[in-house]
Design a protein that fits this description.
Elements: H1 22-29, E1 33-39, H2 60-68, E2 70-76, H3 82-91, H4 95-98, H5 114-120, E3 124-129, E4 146-149, E5 160-163, E6 166-169, H6 174-192, E7 196-201, H7 242-247, H8 264-292, E8 298-304, E9 309-310, E10 316-317, H9 323-326, E11 330-333, E12 342-349, H10 353-360, H11 377-380, E13 392-396, E14 407-412, E15 416-422, E16 429-432, H12 450-466
Parallel strand pairs: 1-7, 1-8, 2-12, 3-4, 3-7
Antiparallel strand pairs: 2-11, 4-5, 5-6, 8-11, 9-10, 13-14, 14-15, 15-16
Helix pairs in contact: 6-8
Length: 504
């Protein structure tokens, strides 16, 4: 959908020099500061306040955001993969429109990011942390006054940063270092009396997980509960697509995780331990805003760039359209604007971030910028509108490097999810999320659901056609194929020779 209320900006140089327009400068100063915190691979139910979270999981800062702000209970990404999701957040567009359809593809030269519009309207802007679009150098990108990033995924410790175009080697834990830079930027803007936009994008908690030294083994003795659909004999397994069963004993499957190099329980606990420093980072941001009084005029949004599977349907990682992959945590903290303890049921997506924050900042985007997302500001304020989403679109394109997961498109409503697989001889998916929240039983092959499958497929393709999403991108192969990667002592690298399945 297009955001129709974001119309052409009056003049390409609005506030080009706010110093010469005191009224515009004063208006900018009255706008809310914006802090957008983005984590990596953080699944929706791995927050301490969530009823499905491990009972031993500690996330006091995120719990505070939930308690004092709003929990967006139905937040999703349009592609569960780092680069496409990050590009969708910054453009408000689906991957098939902005063109960053995988982790290898570069950002098209004519791409416009919403921080560029905030900057033009008087905000001081910063990106601190992970950029990771295409095979990037980590260098500055358009729309940011301050730039602190790194090449690609970056390391968990001792990062070499690109600080405003300069190479800076730092010693320490990356999550902590990025938070230091974020606090420094906010303090500079506070002292200058300028409104600011901060995009704080963490590497954490991306695999392979590395907790901060102070958190290692915090959960070493904590019990691990395995999902019901992880069992080889899980109820409904015979209805799943064939590719799901095949992936079980592959790089991203529980029977051969990362080619047998990892232990499930340790992997799970290290994920939770790595999350601790991320939560501390959020806590430091909130404490700074409290201490300085900036919290009274600042909005903080926290979300994950995609989810992560821990054995559901026998899968590890993300990419697919099951809930644990495409669903993410999203919290909004904005004293005086958001009702404390609010629980927002409306479906929202990563493509909605840009139009929401532009509306909040009272900034208009140029007419030529098409948004696939829509503002959820009204829902955030507790106002029901006719514009609330009736469904969300999901898309993922097959990757040369990770060939285990096929191209797929999905349409999710508040009750049903239809999944269409492209390029494989396999069955599609239909799940009743109300009666079957685990997505254990695929209803697509049942005659009594044939009409529903047809209707949802039509709706899915209506969205794809109306947004230019019916072309499948093709990218020149590069780097290694992970199904052929072979650790020392591992079985044959022939992708058609599967190892013997272990118990789970």
């Amino acid at each position: 959908m297009k955001v129709r209320h974001l119309v052409a900006i009056a003049g390409a140089t609005i506030g080009a020099s706010l110093a010469s327009h005191p009224a515009a400068a004063q208006q900018a100063a009255q706008r809310r500061n914006i802090v957008f915190i983005l984590s990596d691979d953080h699944r929706y139910d791995f927050v301490g306040f969530h009823p499905q979270a491990p009972r031993w999981l500690e996330t006091p800062a995120l719990d505070r955001m939930s308690r004092e702000g709003a929990w967006m209970q139905n937040a999703f990404v349009s592609t569960a993969l780092c680069s496409p999701s990050r590009a969708s957040i910054l453009t408000g567009q689906y991957a098939h429109r902005h063109g960053v359809t995988d982790n290898q593809r570069p950002v098209p030269a004519d791409t416009r990011f919403y921080p560029q519009y905030l900057r033009t309207a008087g905000y001081r802007t910063a990106l601190i942390g992970k950029w990771h679009m295409g095979v990037d150098s980590g260098g500055p990108q358009p729309g940011f006054d301050r730039w602190v990033s790194f090449r690609g995924q970056g390391p968990y410790t001792d990062p070499v940063l690109n600080v405003d175009g300069r190479r800076v080697a730092r010693t320490g834990y990356t999550t902590d270092i990025l938070t230091d830079y974020a606090l420094e930027f906010m303090e500079e803007q506070r002292n200058a009396g300028r409104p600011f936009f901060l995009h704080l994008a963490h590497k954490a908690v991306h695999a392979m997980f590395e907790p901060a030294p102070r958190h290692r083994d915090r959960y070493a003795s904590s019990p691990v509960t395995y999902p019901a659909t992880m069992r080889p004999d899980a109820a409904g397994r015979e209805t799943w697509p064939d590719w799901v069963a095949s992936q079980r004993s592959s790089w991203h499957g529980v029977d051969y995780m990362f080619h047998g190099t990892l232990d499930y329980d340790s992997f799970y606990r290290r994920y939770a331990e790595t999350l601790l420093a991320l939560d501390e980072s959020v806590g430091r941001v909130l404490e700074y805003l409290d201490r300085t009084g900036l919290g009274r005029n600042t909005i903080v949004i926290y979300m994950g760039d995609n989810g992560f599977s821990f054995g559901e349907h026998g899968l590890i990682d993300k990419r697919h359209a099951f809930e644990e992959s495409m669903r993410v945590p999203m919290l909004v903290w904005a004293p005086g604007m958001v009702q404390p303890g609010a629980r927002v049921q409306a479906m929202v997506q990563n493509v909605d971030i840009a139009p929401t924050l532009l509306e909040l900042a009272r900034v208009r985007a140029p007419r030529q910028h098409t948004f696939d997302g829509q503002s959820f500001l009204a829902a955030l304020r507790g106002q029901a509108t006719a514009r609330e989403r009736r469904s969300v679109l999901y898309e993922y394109y097959w990757e040369w490097n990770y060939p285990h997961t096929p191209t797929q498109f999905a349409l999710r409503t508040d009750r049903y999810k239809y999944v269409y697989y492209h390029g494989v001889w396999d069955r599609d998916g239909l799940f009743d999320l109300q009666e079957d929240p685990l997505e254990a039983v695929n209803l697509a092959g049942r005659p009594e659901h044939a009409a529903r499958v047809d209707s949802l497929r039509e709706r899915l393709f209506d969205v794809l056609e109306s947004t230019g999403g019916t072309s499948i991108p093709l990218l020149r192969p590069r780097n290694e194929r992970m199904d052929l990667k072979r650790p020392p002592g591992a079985p044959s690298t022939d992708p058609f020779v599967r190892p013997k399945s272990g118990g789970s």
